[in-house]
Amino acid sequence: MKRLPGIARGGMFNPCRFTRCCDPYPLFVTPVTKHNGARSGFSSLRPLLTIATSNPVKVAEIEAMLGPLDIDVQRQPTDLDVEETGETYEQNASLKASAAALRTAGWALADDSGLEVDALNGAPGLFSARYAQNNQAKIEKLLKEVGDTPYRSACFRSTMVISDPSGTCVASAEGVCWGELLTSPAFEGGCYEALLWVREARCTYGELNQAQLTRLGSRGKAARALAPALRHLLGLDSHRS
To answer: What is the pTM for the complete model shown?
Structure first.
C-alpha cells in the first residue's frame, strides 16, 4: 500500500444512507473517476482513497486495516479543517468525508467516534474530544462524574462514512466496542482508551493490538460492516471469486 500526503479543503454536508451489515472480509474501496488523468506516483490499476481525519491515531488504525489491500492511500491534506457541527457521529463523519472528496475529486473515508458512559446517560459521547482541555483533564473529569458507582458499563462508538468524488456520502456503518470503566487509568499518557476495560481481550482498549482492534475495536467493526455496501455500490462483487 502506498501512502502519500494529500491536498484538500472543506465542503458541505451530504446525508448518507446508513448501512448496518456484517462481513468477515476487510474493507475494499476503489475510485471510479479518471477525470484527473494519470496520477503521478500511483498505479493506474490501484484505487486511491483519502482518509479524512487529522487524528494520527485514527489515521494509523484505519491505514493498518487497509494495509493488506493493493490500494494507494492518501492522508488528509494538512490544510483541511472541517468544523464538526453535526449532531451525530454520522453527520460529523459525513462533513469530513464530503470535504475531502470534493477537494481531492476522489473517494474519501471518514470516521467519527466517542466514548459513551451508561451512568452519564451516554456522555461525553459526541463531545468526547472537547470534554476537557487535555487527556489528563478528561480522565479526571470523567472519573469524578462517574464517581464510585458499581455500574460502569461504557462503550466506544464509531461511525465510518464513504463519500464519492462528488462529495455525496453513499454509505455509512457503525461499530461499537463495549467494556467497563476502570477506577484509574491502566497506563500513563493515554485518554479514555486507558480506562475502558474490554473483557473479551482482558485488557484496556488502549492495549489492544492491531488484530484485536480490527476484530473488537469500534472502527474495525465499522470497517467490516461497511465493506459489503462498498462492494455493492462500487461494483466490486464481480471481482470476488
So the answer is: 0.78
